[in-house]
Write a structure and sequence with these properties.
Largest sheet: none
Number of strands: 0
Order of helices and strands: HHHHHH
Distance between the termini: 45 Å
Strand content: under 5%
Number of domains: 1
Radius of gyration: 16 Å
Length: about 120
């Protein structure tokens, strides 16, 4: 049941992003930023957390999940670090994912040739 919920909710998030891309004149960059900001807002007001608990990776892997991870890290670090956490909390929570993306991107660049 967990896999089914992850698939359905993650698929619904991707479907919404695809519909926005197809039905509006927004560029993929606008949609990317909008999805991350939406995840930050929904995570900040507490709406995204129940969705993440039910869907697991289906809600935390897509772009709104990245925004949710950022705001969650920020909220957890403020009591420990004070207001300095505004600048560091989101990076502590998402640092591993960002590092993995950079490393795998660099590795992929060794095996794939860019076409002009």
């Amino acid at each position: 049941m967990t896999f089914l919920l992850a698939f359905l909710i993650g698929g619904a998030l991707c479907l919404i992003a695809q519909l926005v891309m197809d039905l509006t004149r927004l560029t993929p960059a606008h949609i990317l930023v909008g999805a991350v900001v939406l995840g930050v807002i929904l995570g900040g007001v507490g709406v995204y957390e129940p969705l993440a608990k039910v869907a697991g990776a289906g809600a935390t892997i897509p772009l709104p999940g990245f925004g949710y991870s950022m705001i969650t890290g920020l909220i957890q670090e403020i009591p420990k670090e004070g207001w300095v956490a505004i600048f560091s909390g989101a990076f502590k929570a998402t640092g591993a994912g960002i590092k993995a993306a950079l490393i795998f991107g660099i590795l992929a660049s060794f095996f794939v040739r860019a076409r002009a």
